[in-house]
Amino acid sequence: MAPPVFQFDDVALGYRGRAVVEHVTFTVEPGDFLGLVGPNGAGKTTILRGLLGMLRPLHGTLLRPGPETTLGYVPQRRQLDGVFPLTVADVVLMGLYPEIGLVRRPRPQHHQRVAAALERVGIAALAALPYRDLSGGQQQRCLLARALVGEPAVLVLDEPTNDLDIGGESEILDLLRTVRHEHGVTIVMVTHLLNIVANYADRLAILHEGRLTIGATESLLTGDQLSRIYGRRVAVETVDGRRAVVYHAAPER
């Protein structure tokens, strides 16, 4: 069997010697679609930085892919400054900088790969437009193309559906599912919205009040399991074959 892509073994991560998350143990297997879910401030970003190699463990063992494994990263849209007059093609070309180098000029084959990546995500016609002029969903597709242009084996996404409407959310997630099935890409998606990954991820890692609960999506997405994790009444409904997580309001006092 192939080794795990990521492996956390009793890992603590934090800043300036102070742990934000502790006793984190899980693996991401080749071909996985793992949804890392939790409320804002739960520590998802800290685990994400560990995944990306931006944080070293305070203790425990964290194994990441070696240099032979290409990793694509899709940040939150607000991390790319919309003031810079970059075209859509310019933004996607940034995904090839590790290969091209910052001071060398891109070659025709690099531009061809940019065009192919934009075609892959359905916005080839927007290549010459300024990135800042795109809609939120188009910007997200552009950032996904930037991550895919390097033909990664692993794709890590940070809140890729933030500020999108329902249609935009489903378009991005359907695109990720297609990329995964057609190219065997391993996906780790960080989100604070459980409903976003409920119908796409094979496994969930739910971070809540310092505890990480991980398991198959089918086993965790039950009312009993989610009620236990979140400490409040949760129901899971099925509508037209799709799961919907419903949080019941706390009783008034």
Strand and helix map with partners:
Blueprint: E1 6-15, E2 18-28, E3 33-37, H1 44-51, E4 59-63, E5 71-74, H2 88-93, H3 97-100, H4 108-120, H5 136-148, E6 154-158, H6 166-183, E7 186-191, H7 194-197, E8 203-208, E9 211-216, H8 217-220, H9 223-230, E10 234-239, E11 242-247
Parallel strand pairs: 3-7, 3-8, 5-6, 6-7
Antiparallel strand pairs: 1-2, 1-4, 8-9, 10-11
Helix pairs in contact: 4-5, 5-6
Outline type: globular
Major pleated sheet: 6 strands, mixed
The unreliable regions are none
State the helicity in percent bands.
25-40%
Count of runs of 4 or more consecutive helical residues: 9
Distance between the termini: 54 Å
Which radius of gyration do the C-alpha atoms yield? Answer: 19 Å
State mean pLDDT (0 to 100 scale).
89
Provide the structure class: alpha/beta
- Beta fraction: 25-35%
SSE pattern: EEEHEEHHHHEHEHEEHHEE
**Quantity of strands, as a count:** 11
Identify the strand order in the major beta sheet. Answer: 5-6-7-3-8-9
Short note summarizing the structure:
The protein is globular and about 55 Å long. The chain is built from nine helices and eleven strands.
Notes on the protein architecture:
- The protein is an alpha/beta fold and 253 residues long.
- Helix content is 31%, strand content 28%.
- The chain contains nine helices and eleven strands.
- The strands form three sheets. The protein has a six-stranded mixed sheet with strand order 5-6-7-3-8-9, sandwiched between helices.
- β1 and β2 (18-28) form a beta hairpin.
- α4 (108-120) packs across α5 (136-148).
- The longest helix is centred in the C-terminal third of the chain and has 18 residues, at 166-183.
- The mean pLDDT is 89.
